[in-house]
Write a structure and sequence with these properties.
Layout lengths: L18 H5 L6 E3 L3 E4 L2 H12 L4 H15 L9 E8 L4 E7 L17 H5 L10 H12 L4 H14 L1 E2 L2 H12 L13 H7 L12 E2 L2 H13 L2 H4 L1 H12 L10 H5 L4 E3 L2 E5 L2 E5 L6 H12 L11 H21 L10 H4 L2 H8 L32 E8 L5 E9 L7 E2 L2 E2 L36 E4 L5 E5 L6 H16 L3 H6 L3 E2 L5 E4 L11 H10 L14 E4 L6 E7 L6 E8 L6 E4 L1
Parallel strand pairs: 17-18
Antiparallel strand pairs: 1-20, 2-10, 2-21, 3-4, 3-11, 4-7, 5-6, 8-9, 9-14, 10-11, 12-13, 14-15, 15-19, 16-17, 19-20
């Protein structure tokens, strides 16, 4: 394959990544012998690890962990949301991907959000799509579970009944949203009396961290799922309560119906796989843009000789340029494949990516246009909007050799803010373009249509070594930043030889075909470095607009709330047996590794 080495510049921002530096005050990798789970919440990790210890499969552990996350981290995911799963079935040696993305109601039209700003659309009945998580949990457990569903859901039911302590992150997010309201009496955020009572005090302050939270309604919903399966959610009382809540929303009523719920299906789709350093990088295809964009970024990077350390300015520059090119294609081509024709294979074509890589020089590209990959596609206008921030991630490897990567979401923090039967509804439909066409009347692929699934950035990923064995399981929450976070976790492990935790500890950097962003370091969480020096070095290379003088260029230094969960499988010298599992959890969200 064509290789092109970037020249070093005098302003290279070198940061030493010696083992001593990495170990000082920063989280360290966890090693286990036969099974591992990583989630963004300790309670979910502990429950999943217990299920694995009892002989449960990766799917058993995922169902148990997701049920807990929906309770203890309700701002990020839950039964009222959707998810994507990438699953390696060791018994059949098959990789499968499952699309449990929410769908728009049948009555939805292209002008759904045309005259609304994001905030009003978010906090309304119009934003709610048909949830996919309950059907996903049932179908995967029926096919790949070992322990009885009742047993798998029992830990979450007990937590909901007996109570758990509210954590600081949830309390802080509640407080922030409450502060956006005009007054305590006039509320847009937590306008729903049920969710307000659950998360807030009567004086409109957030319940403090450490408050004992009980949710008997959630426990009852889990009991129904264990007894009746997903039909107990998509039909009957729970379904009627969802429809009523949407259609009587206090801001703007929605049009979700019982028929929309009854007609929901989980779709098994073809995985999308790219290549980086002779490893197959496999993820979720459309309507997720994650698998394609991560694959494109790493496929472009595979055309360059990578030297030095992750935070060297040349490596940061190269990574951001690959992001520009991938996001340009993502914004133009990716939407629900049941509604549009997407050149998925062409977007990951080796020769196409090599030609895209030729565009990269020592100077920032500035905003780039999409390429023309081989294959058939529809003529569309780009949609550069990117939301999807109320998200969580689970990575699992079980004793049987199965591997699972799941990213799960209710879109924005606390979804649309309305609580039904103990869980929050999503606002996933705001991931659609708010405009159906551009100024010239050209349609946008990700426009709203009835029954359609909105584009996502979720990037659950499984990496295979050159001998087709699972090498790495990774993924992250974080809105459109998910793509960069996930790609960087692989870049750091395969490109620089870091272990999973070291890879996560590296400060983030990315470009989504706009302004280059670099992460503000966090003491005890990320590797320390000088972001101002790196920003200045990037400006000297043209970031983020080479057409203006250096002093007018902008590089954002900001907080980047990833929640990476990464597992690497190390094998013996012959490569046949697993030597150990090495895991890393993102301390930015208080993640935890568990297993034995």
């Amino acid at each position: 394959m064509y290789k092109k080495a970037l020249s070093l510049t005098a302003l290279a921002c070198l940061v030493s990544l010696s083992n001593a530096t990495l170990a000082t005050g920063l989280p360290e990798a966890v090693e286990t012998k036969r099974e591992m789970i990583v989630t963004s919440h300790p309670l979910a990790t502990d429950v999943g690890a217990r299920i694995l210890k009892r002989g449960g499969t990766a799917v058993d552990a995922m169902v148990a962990a997701q049920a807990v996350l929906g309770l203890v981290e309700p701002q990020s995911s839950g039964l009222g949301g959707g998810a994507f799963v990438v699953l390696y079935d060791a018994h059949n040696r098959e990789l499968k991907t499952f699309d449990a993305r929410e769908t728009a109601p049948a009555a939805a039209t292209e002008d759904r959000f045309a005259f609304l700003d994001f905030g009003l659309a978010w906090q309304s009945g119009l934003s709610v799509g048909v949830p996919g998580v309950p059907r996903l949990l049932e179908e995967l457990h029926d096919e790949y579970g070992y322990l009885p569903l009742k047993k798998v859901l029992r830990p979450a039911r007990r937590l909901a009944t007996n109570g758990f302590e509210l954590d600081q992150r949830t309390s802080d997010q509640v407080a922030f949203l409450l502060s956006l309201n005009p007054s305590c009496e006039i509320r847009v955020f937590f306008r729903d009396p049920t969710s307000f009572e659950y998360f807030a005090n009567p004086d409109c302050t957030a319940k403090p961290a450490g408050t004992l939270i009980q949710n008997p309604e959630y426990a009852e919903t889990l009991r129904v799922l264990a007894k009746e399966g997903a039909d107990g959610f998509y039909e009957g009382e729970i379904a009627q309560n969802i429809v009523t809540a949407v259609q009587t929303d206090l801001v703007i009523p929605g049009d979700l119906t019982l028929e929309d719920l009854e007609n929901y299906v989980v779709i098994e789709r073809e995985p999308v796989c790219g290549e980086y350093k002779e490893h197959a990088i496999c993820g979720m295809g459309a309507p997720s843009s994650g698998g394609l964009a991560v694959g494109q970024m790493l496929g472009i990077l595979d055309n360059f000789s990578i030297e030095g350390e992750p935070l060297d300015v040349d490596n940061v520059h190269l990574f951001t340029q690959s992001g520009r090119l991938a996001f340009a294609d993502r914004n133009l081509y990716v939407a629900d494949p049941d509604f549009v024709t997407i050149p998925s294979k062409g977007m990951l074509d080796e020769h196409y990516l090599a030609n895209r890589a030729l565009l990269i020089t020592d100077t920032d590209l500035g905003v780039v246009e999409a390429g023309v990959p081989p294959g058939t596609f529809d003529p569309f206008s780009p949609d550069s909007r990117a939301k999807n921030t109320g998200t969580s991630h689970i990575s699992i490897v079980d004793r049987y050799g199965n591997a699972l990567s799941m990213t799960t979401s209710i879109e924005s923090p606390f979804g649309n803010g309305v609580m039904v039967n103990g869980f929050l509804l999503n606002n996933q439909l705001t991931d659609f373009s708010f405009q159906a066409t551009d100024a010239n009347g050209l349609p946008i692929a990700n426009r709203v249509e009835g029954g359609k699934r909105p584009r996502s950035s979720m990037s659950p990923t499984i990496v295979f070594d050159p001998n087709h064995r699972v090498k790495m399981v990774t993924g992250s929450p974080g809105g459109s930043g998910i793509i960069g976070y996930t790609a960087q976790s692989i870049f750091n492990v395969l490109g620089f030889g870091l272990d999973p935790q070291q890879a996560i500890n590296i400060p983030h950097y990315m470009n989504k075909n706009g302004v280059t962003e670099i992460e503000l370091p966090i003491t005890g969480v990320t590797l320390d470095y000088d972001p101002a020096a790196l920003a200045q070095a990037l400006k000297e290379k043209g970031h983020s607009d080479p057409n203006v003088p250096v002093e007018q260029r902008i590089v954002l230094i900001n907080a980047q709330t990833s929640g990476l969960g990464t597992i690497v499988i190390e094998r013996n010298k012959r490569g046949k047996r697993v030597k150990k599992l090495v895991g890393g959890a993102d301390a930015r969200r208080g993640g935890k590794v568990g297993g034995k």
